[in-house]
Amino acid sequence: MTVPSSPRDKVAVVGVGRMGANMARRLAEKGFHVTAVYDLHREVSVHLASELGCHAAQNLSEVTAEADFILTVVSDDRAMREIFLGEGDNLLVAAAGKTFLNFATVSPSVHLEVEAAARKAGASAIEACMASSITQARQGTLFLILAGEDAIVEASAPVLEALSTARRHVGPTGRAAQVKALVNMVMNINTAGLAEGLGVGDALGLDLTVLREIFAQTGANSRVLETDGADMQNREHDCYFSAAHAAKDSGIALSLAEKAGIATPLGAAALAQYTRMVEKGLGELDKSGVAELTFKNRAPV
User: Fold this and answer.
1) Whether the Cβ atoms of residue 60 and residue 12 lie closer than 8 Å to each other
2) Which of 131, 254, 278, 290 has its CA 20 to 30 A from that of 35?
3) What is the DSSP letter of 140?
4) Does residue 226 belong to any structural domain of this protein?
């Protein structure tokens, strides 16, 4: 029988960059007992542990030993495999009875590998892909795309509810990663398209504020216009979702499309733009920084 989580449960977070750290802060604020944090950049975990009054674990098996629910927020497929399947120290050492909530955007196949390995270790794992950014993580207003066994999702509900205001359970493990990849593929296409439209408008000498206002009242409107339009105009690219992550996620989506036999020329064009940003050293700019490639006299050599 799977027992529902509650604020009395011990929780830990693996991967405490911008998103993971804010999730840990939110859970502590909501009364959960945050026992441990872990990051490859140890100085980051030590700083956060000092802030929260918890343990900065030096290895992954410590994290598992100290918590009932372990949240993972890592960057890519390689990192996900390393923390769960790495030789020697990993999260599945003595993991029987533990529950892993995996928030990273990685390939669906990796989530399936992790679920199978967790089950073999007597543990549970679900996907909780985030369609939100750093601010929402701190405020507890994430949109979560969930996948995995119903009972585990239900048992994890108090933790998930503390972090989010909206959740959709889309099916068995692997489905959330598929949905999230498509969400980000479409978002990245929209962002790259907006950057081109504003770049052309700027080259024509149009008032970009007026142009954005007209976009907002016509078929050119989009959520990206609301979040990124002014930033593109004003060259304010503080990072909420990096160009490097945009490239990674579009790559996952295009791989899924290829396997499904679907051509995605717009997706490929957007991926090329974000890949170019990474190659030019702009990968840590927000995705809005794609405008640096589309405005005259901005584009890097």
Assistant:
1) no
2) 131
3) T
4) yes
Asked if residue 301 belongs to a domain, the reply is no
* Spatial contact of 172 and 148, defined as CB atoms under 8 Å apart: yes
The 10s digit of each residue's pLDDT in 138-152 is 999 999 999 999 999
How many folded domains does the chain comprise? 2
Task: For residue 10, give both structure tokens.
Answer: 């011990």
pTM: 0.92
Q: Are 155 and 123 in contact (CB under 8 A)?
A: no
What confidence tens digit (pLDDT) does each residue in 107-127 have?
A: 999 999 999 999 999 999 999
The single-letter code of the amino acid at 29 is: E
CATH code of the domain containing 208: 1.10.1040.10
Question: Are 153 and 66 in the same domain?
Answer: yes
User: Residue range 70-81: average pLDDT?
Assistant: 96
Q: Is residue 262 part of a domain?
A: yes
Give the whole-angstrom CA distance, residue 166 versus residue 203: 41
